[in-house]
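Comment thread on ticket #2218

A.B. wrote:
> Attaching the input chain for the structure job we discussed in standup.
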Amino acid sequence: MAEAASAKPAAIPRDRRPRAHPLAGADPATLLKVLWQAGGAAPAGWGRTAGALGASLGRAPLSLVEAAATALWRRGRALEQPPLFLLGHWRSGTTHLSNVLGKAGFGIVDPVSVGLPWDTLLVGRWLRPLLVRMLPKGRFIDDVAVNPDSPQEDETAVANMTALSYFHAVYFPRAFDRFYWRGLFLEGASPALVRQWERRLDRFLWKLERVQPGRPLLVKNPVYTARVAQLARLYPGARFLHIVRNPHEVFASTRGFFTKMFEALALQPWDGVAVEEVVLKTYPRLMQPLLDDSAALPPGTYAETSFEAFERQPLAELERIYGELGLPGFAAARPAMEAYLGSIRSYARAARRFPARDIALVEQRWGPFLARWGYGRPESE
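C.D. wrote:
> Ran it. Output below, let me know if you need it in another format.
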């Protein structure tokens, strides 16, 4: 996309920037394939790229040992329990909801495993104390704390296991269109690449079950909002929980989210990406498949909440969600969830202002979804 980005990224505190590029957790084949398709890193990104490649090659022997051991241990076995997939557009409250549910006894996609998906069972365990000390104090896109037990989106792991990830568009913006639409909506993805993604995701989730035995997995990823039918086929009995937020808030926040992602992770210049137009195009392409696919799910496997309702009465919403999805153990999990909610009571979101131009854009481009969820016009500047 030739149009320049519409927003300048805000500065990211240095202590929240990744110390190593996330691609350091990739296997050499995936890393080299993505680098080739992207046309290589820009000179400013050579150092981080070399570091990622060195880490990948250095771990390769142990990664191969883990792959062989996993194949023998697993022997084609499926997950012991179907996951709970947490869905929602970026900046809709998925992190807040997953952090609360993460206290309820679910298995999570933890920060160490998500960074080292090929090495979850060996290197990840051996180096866990060191890696935990290297975690940033908070996410670089906001002030939400990152702890060893903070649930993470599994997209970082996906981007390190296969070439089918929208994160590669963030890492290599000169190839943005190729990576972004393919990684989100499988646009132009070969059947072989899609099957590889399915197999490797399943292997990663199986390893997470081994690390957290006896716990159903909580898997959060905005990408999966458009893949409900695919995930329901792959994981019979899976449950899906969608959180929606006022699209006016989502538009403004997601625009800032992408600029901060580029600033922190891009290995090529990103001034050629039309961030605003990408956000405007993405929302309906993510939400319409959700509406279509969720309507075909069996009763008791899909529930929905809103950020606003969850913020007002989180425990009441959780009790309702547990009931709708047939999840056991709400009473037992309630004290831990309540304690976590109490611990973040002082967290304050930044106040947001809504220019009349932005309101008009959202109403024009996302109008059917405003009506679908009953959101009105915010107060403009």
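A.B. wrote:
> Thanks. Noting for the ticket: Strands lie at 84-87, 218-220, 239-244, 302-306.
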